[in-house]
Amino acid sequence: MRVVVTGGAGFLGSHLCEALVRRGDAVVCADDLSTGRLENIEHLRHLGCEFVRADVTMPLEVSGTVDAVAHLASPASPPDYLRLPLETLAVGSRGTENALRLATQHGARFVLASTSEVYGDPLVHPQHEEYWGNVNPIGPRSVYDEAKRYAEAVTTAYRGRRANTGILRIFNTYGPRMRPCDGRVVSSFIVQALSGEPLTVYGSGDQTRSFCYVDDLVRGLVAMIDSAEAGPLNIGNPQELTVRELAQLVLEITGSSSAVEYHPLPQNDPTRRRPVVTRVRDALGWSPEVSIEEGLRRTVQWFAARPDAVAAAALALRGGQSGADRVRPAADQLPVQAQPLPATEQAASAQV
Ligand SMILES: NC(=O)c1ccc[n+]([C@@H]2O[C@H](COP(=O)([O-])OP(=O)(O)OC[C@H]3O[C@@H](n4cnc5c(N)ncnc54)[C@H](O)[C@@H]3O)[C@@H](O)[C@H]2O)c1
Q1: Which atom of ligand 1 is nearest to the CA of 73?
Q2: Out of 81, 119, 131, 144, which one is annotated catalytic?
Q3: Residue 339 pLDDT > 60, yes or no?
Q4: Tens of pLDDT along 14-68?
Q5: Strands 26-31 vs 109-115: parallel, antiparallel or unpaired
Q6: Quick one: 54 and 141 in the same domain?
Q7: Which Gene Ontology cellular component terms are annotated (predicted)?
Q8: Are residues 245 and 314 in the same domain?
Q9: From the CA of 75, how far away is ligand 1's center (Å)?
Q10: Residue 178, in any domain of the structure
């Protein structure tokens, strides 16, 4: 099988490319490297993973056979999509259309990497696929949430025209190859713990998240590529954890004596997130296998082997905090996870 993976040089994309290559598929990784890194797939390039530097918001052509297109290209962490708002809307809309066109031209299976963010700040808990969500269309996070909602709509419309499309709604995923300074809660806590810096918790820390280890997630992505399921299917670990519990776990696993610091909660920060995974279990036989303790141990190990990147990220996190403090004119202009951002962007930089 020959699979095109858009966004294949990113965190999830590179693990997907690796899983496909390891089972003998040929892979074409199409990526503009805006948030991804070539080093994520460097080790796969002699194993049948071809890299094409391409912005998928431009027409996408791939010669030769294409059996499946997995569309993962999109900035995914809040600092990234707030820094790239128009690009995020473009890749969710035009980018998805181009990836769908490519799949249709080749009669290939198409899988959209959608997100739990389509549920916004959910009024229904836990989140099942019939729930339509609670998204502020002009809120700071809307560039990402609405782009993905459009991506789901256009994917569904293509299915209406007999294209073999499927939608996976991915919940928070973590693991090796997350960028240490990507602003997500798992990477930020690990960086802070390994550097002896205080762990930054927004709000009381009682807001919950569910964290899926990357290997589990990729197993589901591959099963979705191999199936003809339409979805949408939630995919994520249904074990719910408060952000405060996560901080404690990271402290235990790293053996760090860092303190935990509390800051005001950002605007539109979802308070609860947990997937109902009955559908994906029934449709694909998928359920998570890696515990949060084991997944965090593997992730901490990966970060600990990169002390320079961790030190740089710790510095950026500290800079974000003190930079925000310096310019903070009002209570709702909040410190950020990874890098100094303008005040409007800080308000959206939730703990994801
Ligand atoms: N990581 C998660 O927890 C999570 C959760 C929900 C959904 N997702 C979705 O999974 C996908 C991958 O997320 P990730 O965490 O690996 O993020 P990432 O930023 O590591 O990877 C995204 C990749 O897309 C590439 N890209 C962005 N715009 C592009 C464009 N116009 N043309 C070509 N390439 C482009 C980037 O360079 C990067 O390699 C995204 O679509 C994201 O929305 C991720």
Answers
A1: 24
A2: 144
A3: no
A4: 999 999 999 999 999 999 999 999 999 999 988 989 999 999 999 999 999 999 9
A5: unpaired
A6: yes
A7: cytoplasm
A8: yes
A9: 5
A10: no
Q: Is 284 exposed, middle or buried (0-12, 13-18, 19+ CB in 10 A)?
A: buried
Q: Which of 12, 89, 111, 216 to mutate to test the pocket of ligand 1 (most atoms within 8 A of CB)?
A: 12
Task: Measure the CA–CA gap between 198 and 317, rounded to whole angstroms.
Answer: 10
91 DSSP assignment: I
Q: Are residues 52 and 105 in the same domain?
A: yes
Ligand 1 centroid to residue 73 C-alpha, Å:
5
Give distance in angstroms: CA of 122 to centre of ligand 1.
23
Nearest atom in ligand 1 to the alpha carbon of residue 179 is 20
Distance 90 CA to ligand 1 centre (A): 13
Q: Find the CATH number of the domain harbouring 245.
A: 3.90.25.10
State yes or no: pLDDT of 207 exceeds 60: yes
Task: State pLDDT tens for residues 239-252.
Answer: 999 999 999 999 99
CA of 257 to the centre of ligand 1 (A): 33
Rounded CA gap, 208 and 127, in Å? 13
Range of the domain at 201: 185-209+239-271+290-346
pTM score, whole prediction: 0.91
For the question of residue 150 being annotated catalytic, the response is no
347, pLDDT greater than 70: no
Please tell me whether residues 230 and 99 are part of one structural domain. Answer: yes
Q: Whose CA is nearest to atom 34 of ligand 1?
A: 31
Q: Contact 305/238 with Cβ under 8 angstroms?
A: no
DSSP 8-state class, residue 109: E
Atom in ligand 1 nearest the alpha carbon of residue 80: 19
62-107 confidence digits (pLDDT tens): 999 999 999 999 999 999 999 999 999 999 999 999 999 999 999 9
Q: Is residue 352 part of a domain?
A: no
| Residues within 6 Å of ligand 1 by CB | 6-7, 9-13, 31-36, 54-57, 72-76, 80, 91, 95, 113, 115, 170, 172-173
Whichever domain contains 60, its CATH number is 3.40.50.720
Residue 265: DSSP 8-state:
P
In this structure, what DSSP letter does residue 240 have? E
Domain count of the chain? 2
Q: Is residue 280 part of a domain?
A: no
Q: How many helices (H) and strands (E) does the chain have?
A: 12, 13
Compute the half-sphere exposure of residue 220: CA atoms within 13 Å on the CB side of its CA.
33
Is residue 40 located within the same domain as residue 107? Answer: yes
Of all atoms in ligand 1, which is nearest to the CA of residue 114?
7
* Residues 147 and 15 both lie in one domain: yes
**Tens digits of residue pLDDT in 297-323:** 999 999 999 999 999 999 988 876 543
